[in-house]
Write a structure and sequence with these properties.
Layout (H helix, E strand, L loop, with lengths): L5 E6 L2 H12 L2 E2 L9 H7 L10 E5 L7 E6 L12 E3 L9 H17 L3 E8 L2 E7 L5 E4 L1
Parallel strand pairs: 1-4, 5-8
Antiparallel strand pairs: 2-3, 3-4, 6-7, 7-8
Length: 144
């Protein structure tokens, strides 16, 4: 068994970016710890200053299989191309005909465009259709 990982995004608005990625991956916002109805209640109980409350957010796979994604507020914006990116595998892979891959990928693309993403380019590579996109803060990812 491998070691569990968390993927961390530096961003300006953790809550907004977390909600975008929850939509992109069919994840959900992480719920507060047991015994707390809200994250605010947790923060108050743990004497976390109110100005710290918006500095992070997290999403999880409802099925418990994918990695947790953590979003942390940083003062600087993104300035160069990502060295690591996520591939969002909605097309079904090379076993699915390219026309059907395109249909699945375009449906997710349209959903993410409505949520604020942008398209960088489209390509067909190695028998798979791919759309390279950028999230709300310019982080590249692929729909394939």
């Amino acid at each position: 068994m491998g070691i569990p990982v968390q993927v961390t995004f530096d961003c300006a608005d953790p809550d907004r970016v977390a909600k975008f990625w929850a939509l992109a991956l069919d994840y959900k916002l992480q719920e507060p710890p047991p015994g707390f109805d809200t994250w605010e209640a947790f923060a108050l109980a743990n004497n976390i200053p109110e100005e710290e409350w918006s500095k992070s957010s997290a999403i999880i796979d409802p099925a418990g299989q994918g990695p947790r994604l953590y979003f942390q507020k940083v003062p600087e914006g993104k300035t160069v191309k990502n060295r690591v990116h996520l591939d969002v595998n909605v097309g079904g892979g090379s076993a699915v005909p390219v026309a059907e891959q395109r249909q699945r990928i375009y449906a997710k693309r349209d959903q993410l465009l409505a949520a604020g993403a942008t398209v960088f380019r489209e390509a067909e590579e190695y028998g798979e259709f791919v759309i390279v996109m950028q999230d709300l803060e310019g982080n590249e990812f692929c729909l394939q």
